Amino acid sequence: MLRVNFSSIAVPDALHKSAVPGRRDPRCYSPPINAVRHPLGQGDFMAQIVVTTFVKNLLGGGAERVAVNLLQGLPQDVFTQELVMVEALGPYLAQVPEHVKQIDLGSGGGMKEQGNVTAAIAPLVRYLRERKPDILISHLAHANVAAVIAAACARTGTKVVLIEHNDNTLVDQARTRSKLSSLMQQFKSLTYNRADTIIGVSDGVSRYVSRTFNVPETKVETIYNPVVSSAMMARSHEPLLHPWFAPDAPPVLLASGRLREQKDFSTLLRAFAIVRQSRSCRLLILGEGELRPELEAEVAELGLQDSVLLPGFVDNPYPYMRAASLFVLSSRWEGLPTVLVEAMACGTPVVATACPSGPAEILEDGEHGQLTEMGDPNALAGAILAELAAPTPSEQLEARAACFSFENAIASYTDLLVSKAAQPGRPGAVREPKTSPPVPTTNRASAPGQRALQTREADPKRRGKWN
Predict the structure, then answer these.
(1) Structural domain includes residue 112
(2) What gap in Å lies between CA 211 and CA 419, rounded to an integer?
């Protein structure tokens, strides 16, 4: 019998230190991505921890980008990863690593109603029973609820880790006026408490989860998103051929996000109209969404057609961030706005609303950029003019953004997932000895110098229709 001794995994002591109790502080340690090693690394083969990520789709949002970043960053010598989607849609699909197996419940999982997270529960249950992953990671509220229900129905012992990306305090307050919304909140509280761990992407989100859903603090952890990487920084230096960024052109304000209520681009447009009364500048809003017709109508109503562009989703927004004079976040609610960190990493000054949660935490209460009230175009215009007149130094912004690096986040996630897999009830912790060499697989893409590793796909006991 081959036993996986998880207690022997070497986890750097610094990962357990924290400036805030219960939080893995990304500022305290910056290890290489492969700092956490599997205990069977000395042998020819090793049994890996199977981690399944569950998302609705990979449309162009911040949470979806974080999900892909985790798929890219988790070390292959520790984890075998699979990606299960309600529907395999979205521009981020192209960025999923080759070594991650993709399962589309909408096309091959037997789901009757495509795009419906609730309808995905039954095929997700079948997937869990077939594959028996060690850990199920889920992103965003509806998928999180479905993941907990499916894991409970599957009864495979799979650990459930939910990632909460937003502080929906304001949204919840508006919804509690109806009995149905109140019942849904209670139901969400019941399901969240069945999860093994809930990760808040900021301290504000973690507090929101504990307070709103009555989840014990011992179940909630804060891990900042994996944002800044060498690959991202390299992409930020790619050529940008846009006439608005010519050397003698007026300053360009940049915003980025889905065109929906949360981002409150309407307030940004009204603030920009006020700014235009004082100085010449332009506004570029990257992203796509259901509010495009309303925003385009507002641009026309304000007479800003010549100074505002909404080009849609852009695969590489980083050259825009580096070239812009200022990045503006006008959101009503967030969790840990990735775009704000990305702009800072590119050395671009930022202005943000002090919405719940994330901006004040990232900017350390205004130390690294202007914070302003939500939904107030006059206040936002004043902050924009102030930052344009006296921009925060690029070096300061880049240093703060480094706290949200890939390496820090991946090390924290690896530490957490390894510890969860080691807890009692983990399926597959005891492996039968192999009677033949492992079957070669093509979905591995190991880093140079790493040896090929045996995965569960080579184990006939793990094979099924999901392979």
Answers:
(1) yes
(2) 25
